[in-house]
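Q: Convert this sequence to structure tokens.
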Amino acid sequence: MKKVLSLAMSLVMLVTTMSVGMVNAYANTKYSATEITEAAPVNFTVKSDDTYYLKYTPTKDGAMEFVLDTDAKYGLWDYVDITITDMADNDYNWNMIDCDSKVPAVGYDKFVAGKKYIIEVEAYFEDSTSFSGTLSVKPHTSHAYERGTEPGVYMDAREFELGIMKGDGYVADCCTVCSYEKKISSIAAPSKFVISKSKYVYDGKSKKPTVAVYNTKGTRIDGSRIDYEYENNTKVGTATVLVENADDCEKYLIYKPMKFTIVPRSTSIRGISGTKKGFLVKYYRRSTQTTGYQVQCSTGKSFSTKKTVTIKGTKNISYKMTNLKAKKKYYVRVRTYKVVNDKKYYSAWSKVKTVTTKA
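A:
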């Protein structure tokens, strides 16, 4: 009985000793691992279903790539995974190489100079007890491009002035690791916007001018690739048409607010007669979207020298002009105006009528 008990105690002590040894071996393997550098690739062998550790301390910031090469023959379920961990805080960063057949295999990412990293090589080979290979590190040159069904759009100049690019852009494939771009084609930037009509007369209906967009090469961009949004485009005042890309178009970056005006309806003179050193002019009433009228007279057709009177309100539809020269021929015209946000919007002038003042 004592022999059995002694044997059991010996087994417990052996297992305990082996466990401590395994933990220490793991720690020593991980933190006393071989250092890999650009100048010193590492040849290694790792047992199947086990982990081999390397250390890496980059000398400069930036993207680096690791290349795994081996003569091993991969079976259906065989694989090699290489991952990297921040040694300082043991943060798991990424799976650098996931290789199940393609060799040499390349993995890349950006690194911080002076920061210590642990590289873990894990392998499983169904028909082998170990895996051998060479791991090397070098500056990142094997760019990994990522694109969908359509190439991404990257603009050469990202400065905008009301949505107009100041420089042409280009279509490019962009590396997923670094900032390298492989240019595919150029994009002529939208640079000239021509509105179809800049002034309208109020009639109660919304106004919707179109805008022709030309690129830096002078070519007009297909109108089907452009959408319009309108603001304040019914009443008298300043309206906006926002020119932008159609929903299905991402090749051109267009965002251009353009202004146009809506002015009140004009009026016309329905009668005019001379008075003592003046005249009486009658005109048609305009009450909708109108604040008042202006009457203007001049002794010359060009109205280079003129007298203008502003009449507030729309109820009075006649005005008596005074303090003019006696027995003098005058040219007379009338227009309406509307005040919106402290700004006056004027209609076109009416047709000119002539009148001779009395003595």
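The chain has a mean pLDDT of 81.
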